[in-house]
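Internal tracking record. Fields below are filled automatically when a chain is submitted to the structure queue. Please do not edit lines marked as system-generated. If the sequence contains nonstandard residues, flag them in the REMARKS field before resubmitting.
Queue: standard
Priority: normal
Entity type: single polypeptide chain
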Amino acid sequence: MYFRATKKQSCEVSLSDPIDSDKDGNALSLLDVISSDDNILDEIDLSDRQVKLYRYMADSLEDREREILFMRYGLLGKKALTQREVAEKCGISRSYVSRIEKKALEKLARCFEDPAPQRP
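SYSTEM-GENERATED OUTPUT FOLLOWS
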């Protein structure tokens, strides 16, 4: 009876069982060999959020709000600018840039909370 039970388990392999050793003599397990980076999932999540961000920006923001956010945060590969630099480019005050930026970020935050697109 004992041999039948052990024969069934003889094909089972644990991921933490040592299968070899590295050049320093440390045991390598199957888990070490087949494991993958968790960064892949993070990169996919980041990419998905970027797509959503640009879609929400296109759907929810006015042209001026979108333009200011692109300049302020360096989106689409552009260099990020200070509020003062954005104000000079747009011909408005720095405080007005701040208000527009804040309003646009609040709209985007609402979009991420409630994904239904909202037109201004």
